[in-house]
# Entry
Amino acid sequence: MRSVYVGRLCVASAIYLAASFKFSVATPFDLLITSFMLVAAVLVTIASYWHTHVRNRSPGRTFLYGQALFDVALITAVVHVTGGPQSDLTPLYVPLIAVTAVLMPPASTALLTALVGLVYFADVFFGHRTPMTAQVALQLLVFVAVAAVTAYFASRVSVMGAEREALAGELRQARLEAADVLRNIPTGVVTVDQGGHLLYCNPAAEQILGFKERGWRGRPIMPEFARIAPEFWAAITATARRGVRAMRVEATVRRPDRTFTIGITTTTLEVEPESEPRVT
# Structure
């Protein structure tokens, strides 16, 4: 929206400067209209910026409609003052339609395009008494074509964004389900990085090894593994350094309260292609 605000102020300034430089041919009514539009553009832009950037409110449908209608009036004023059908600023309608197609749904874009065509038609025929020409018809066709093309691509981008959000939601759900499974399975699961720092330890592993994950997460855990279960430490070290995976290897856990035997299976996990594999 910030670029919309900047563009609006530039157009309003162009209106006023165009009327001022053509003072000898501009009517007092044109000067009055341009002065009013400049003041209105400044006030509307300040209020809009305060709403979207100071209050941090998301622009709703009504807000966007209001912005678009004001910009149509603003551009129509500059086109009228600078010659109507002979104006070099008529293409300003094109970015307005394109921005509307990006920010609003296709139906709203169609309504705005129809409004632009009507006000441009009215300015040409009633404001400047110009007969229908091929140039005017071509300009109206350009408005419709820009609206259709931009709305199509905007809708495709919107669909792709919705699909991406849906995929991200499914991925988050899968991660939550996997985390829930790991928390509740009776098998201990431990993950360390290549440096031997603890990355994950589920509740079953905490009960088996006799320590809490929150006290060791991100810290070097291998010396503790070597003290509690030397065979477990050796299996993880072999997997981390040489990629040798252990399959159902027995290890003895020596805790202050008791000593018992566990089965070990190790593997490597590559989270990203460029990252170092993790050992689980």
In short: The chain has two domains: 2-155, 186-279. The chain has a mean pLDDT of 76.
